[in-house]
Every structure is written in structure tokens, then in C-alpha cells.
Amino acid sequence: MLRLVLLISLTCLVKSDTDEECPSFTRLSFHSAVVGTGLNVRLMLYTQRNKTCAQVINSTALGNLNVTKKTTFIIHGFRPTGSPPVWMEDLVEGLLNVQDMNVVVVDWNRGATTVIYTHASSKTRKVALILKEFIDRMLAEGASLDNIYMIGVSLGAHISGFVGEMYAGQLGRITGLDPAGPLFNGRPPQERLDPSDAQFVDVIHSDTDALGYKEPLGNIDFYPNGGLDQPGCPKTILGGMKYFKCDHQMSVYLYLASLEEKCAITAYPCGSYRDYRNGKCINCGTPQTVSCPLLGYYADNWKDYLKDKEPPMTKAFFDTTEKNPFCVYHYFVDILSWSSNIRRGFITIKLRDKYGNITESKIDHEPATFQKYHQVSLLARFNQDLDTVAAISLVFSTGSIIGPKYTLRVLRIKLRSLAHPDRPQLCRYDLVLMENVETFFQPIQCPKLQI
User: Fold this and answer.
1) Which pLDDT value is given to residue 450?
2) In this structure, are strands 102-108 and 55-57 parallel, antiparallel, or unpaired?
3) Domains, the chain, ranges and CATH?
4) Which keywords appear in this protein's UniProt record, sorted alphabetically (predicted)?
5) To 5 degrees, how large is the angle CA 438–CA 443–CA 449?
6) Helix crossing, 241-260 with 88-98: angle to 10°?
């Protein structure tokens, strides 16, 4: 809540612009946020016929909306400056690129624009009622609840939940992008988004320690980087406005990446982020015939699998890089030690291909314990996926600045890709790692197990 207050206090003036050729998202000024605005919801339709120029529609005029097609509603959240969401156009375009559908932007900026968060929050149920009236008209014209998909950001996630509750959970799908935490944390299910609000509810939690909701709210709840600080976001107030919004908005950018299909962000169902980082959940807890869940647009591939669980809910964890497309590539690093004394420390591993491309993973979230003839399996995360690995380097460190330097004697190291289990596993034998000294070697293919 403190970050929310600071965000409001640092907002800057935004110029108003009403001279537009095409109807577009309402743009208000900071003055409007100070004096307050009355609720006025505009529904703006985008289709394959009008990808960039919206058509304003309502419950008495459906315009070009084709009720036989999927209809996706995008619902934004709190707008303390009155400016349009910077991601809205990209989200509309991305959705229309992956499927021929109706995309309806729910513009409730006149209502969400205020420096008083409680005023915006208090209007969420009114927005939901307006959407129900519109959907009722769609149903009367032949639409199906199965084909209705709601993407709600922050407060918009709870608005989606309220609409879903009005239809007894029969909406096709709701995606909550970092649902708002302030004023909703600890609320009963009927007062927030919850798994019963649609046939499938997926949620991305990217700012659980500030503006977002921490606890699970869906059938599958994704926690990028544990749901806390996101890579690339400022860690202090010196980052300016980005410090307050970046973690919260990252849920939207991760979802956008899933529409671009540059790479599929895979998540791992797990009891905790720590267990995921320690490599305890890489089989997804599923039969081999079921692949791990994907983040974002294609998360509903897990819908049928989750139906068989009791309750039909799971949490999934994954790490990301700082920039789009955010994908991390996982490898297991198996180290069989033959040091006579127990060694505790961290491993940094670099991979290089024949073209000189290098990618690095620091496995330093907690110290690993190496003991004689005992294999330690470490989960390494790399920013690049190298097709072939020509060279590897290792650094062993205890993390101690002063004190004696140690060695780690390695009987065998094995590198195996999780993303591409068909790739040959790479080995090296008889290494001595001097603490804080980078050791280079060329790997060889591990011998295949004899059956």
C-alpha cells in the first residue's frame, strides 16, 4: 500500500487529446484524477476488419461484432494519471494475430482515473454490471458463454471475476494479470476473482509484495521469478515511476510475449519457488504424455488435465530474463564430487558454442553441499539456447571474502537439457576446481546407458 501511495504522489501531468480520427481509449489529464470523474464505460470493438480503428459498441448496437466467434474482453485497472495503458494497442494486435476473434476493449478510464484508489475500487462492480448487460445482449443474439474470454489487469481481474460470478462460472475463461492486492487481500471469494468464476481461470502474479495479490486465485496461478521482484525492474526509488509500476505491469508483458510465439515460456507446477529453484519439480508432476503448462494465451492447454485434480488448482513457478521474449532455458548440472571433505558453495557455469556465443548461469540462490561420491543435481537457467555446446567453464565459490581458498574435486560433471531431452548429454571427468578460478574444458558425449 505504501508503494501505491507513493505512486500517486509522483504522478505527472498528462495532456488531453480529443482530436482523433478513430475512436480510441479515453485520455484524461492529471487534473481529472485530482477532481475525480464519474463512471462512463465505453466498449471499443476491434476485429480482423478493423484491427487499428475501433468501433464503439454497446448493448443496443453490437456493430461488427460476430456473435459466432470468440469474444475477448480486455479490462484495465486503476489509472492514477488518466493516461491510456501503454500496452493496450499491442495486446489488441497480438490477440487478433493469433486468432480471428472479436476484441472488446473495456474503457472505464472515466471512473478508474483518480488519485484516490478506493474510489476506483468502489466502481468495479458497476463496471461488471454494465458488462453483464452487454453480454446478455450477445447471448440473445446467439453468442455462447463458452466463447467469452476476459483478460483483466489489476482491478480489471476482479471485475472479470464479478462478471463470471453473475454467470455462475460459465464464462469460457478468465485471465487475471497481477490482480490487485490492496483492498482485496484476504477478501472472501465472492468479493474478488476466484477459480469458480469461469470454466478456466489462469492468473499471473508478478508483484505480490506490493500492488498485486499474493495468494492463488485461479485454476493455475503462475509466479514468475517467485512473484516478487522482476528482472529488469528498478530495485530502488531512484528508478522513478518505473520502480512503482514495473513489477506490476510485467504480468502484461509476459502475456504479450506468449502471443508473439518467439518462444514458449514453460512453467513448473510446484509447492514453492524454492523447490522449483532446487530442481524438485521439473517433471511437472504429470504423466509423460502431459507437457508442462505454458504461460499466457495457451495456458488453457492444461484445462482438461486440471479438471481431474481435486481441487482443480495448482501453482506454477518459472524464471525469466530481463527482456522480451523472457524465456529461460533449463539444464541440469549433475556434479559427482570426490573431495574427501564436505564442501558447501555456489557454481557459475558458462556455455559457449562454436560461433563464440556465450551464455551464463549463476546457481547462487542457496549453497549446495558437495560430499565424496555423492551426486548433486543443480538446476541452471540460461538466457540463450545454444544448439551445440563446444566449451564449458565452471567457477566454484564459497561466497567468503576472507579466509582460506578451497578446492572442489569433481569425479564427473554431466550437463543435460530439460527443454530438449533428445539432445546428447555432455560429460567431463576428473576436474579440480580452485575456488574463484574459472576452469575451462571441452565436454564429450556421455556414454549411453546399457539396457
Assistant:
1) 45
2) unpaired
3) 2-318 (3.40.50.1820), 329-445 (2.60.60.20)
4) Calcium, Cell membrane, Disulfide bond, Glycoprotein, Hydrolase, Lipid degradation, Lipid metabolism, Membrane, Metal-binding, Secreted, Signal
5) 135
6) 10
**Residues 210, 247 contacting (CB under 8 angstroms):** yes
Q: Are 80 and 114 in contact (CB under 8 A)?
A: yes
Q: Using one digit for the tens of pLDDT, what is the confidence trace for 7-20?
A: 544 443 333 333 45
Q: Rounded CA gap, 299 and 17, in Å? A: 37
- Of 197, 193, 166, 164, the C-alpha closest to 181 is 193
Give the distance, in angstroms, between the CA of residue 86 and the centroid of all CA atoms in the same chain: 18
Alpha carbon distances (Å) from 387 to 265, 353, 419, 446: 18, 8, 11, 17
Side chain identity, residue 58: N
Region 313-330 average pLDDT: 95
Q: Where are the alpha helices (DSSP H) in 261-335?
A: 273-277, 303-307
How would residue 287 be classed by pLDDT, with cut points 50, 70 and 90? low
Average pLDDT (326-349) is: 94
Amino acid at 328: V
pLDDT at residue 188 is higher than 50 = yes
Q: CA distances (Å), 352 to each of 146, 327, 356, in order?
A: 48, 18, 6
Whole-angstrom CA distances from 80 to 33, 109, 280, 421 are: 6, 10, 42, 48
Cβ-count burial 395-409 (b if 16+ within 10 Å, e if not): bbbbeeeeeeebebb
Does pLDDT of 138 surpass 70? Answer: yes
* Known binding residues: 192, 194, 197
Strand partners, 358: 352
Which range in 139-153, 267-281, 306-320 is most confidently predicted, on average pLDDT? Answer: 139-153
Binding residues for Ca(2+), by number, are 192, 194, 197
Q: Which H or E element spans position 40?
A: strand 40-46
| Cβ partners under 8 Å of residue 361, min gap 6 | 331, 348, 349, 350, 380, 381, 382
Catalytic site positions: 154, 178, 248
Report how far residue 54's alpha carbon sits from residue 43's, in angstroms, rounded to the nearest whole number: 9
Model confidence pTM above 0.85: yes
The residue length of the chain stands at 451
pLDDT at 18: 39
User: Quick one: which of 134, 147, 153, 144 has its CA closest to 193?
Assistant: 153
260: nearest Cα among 295, 232, 292: 295
198's grid cell: 469461469
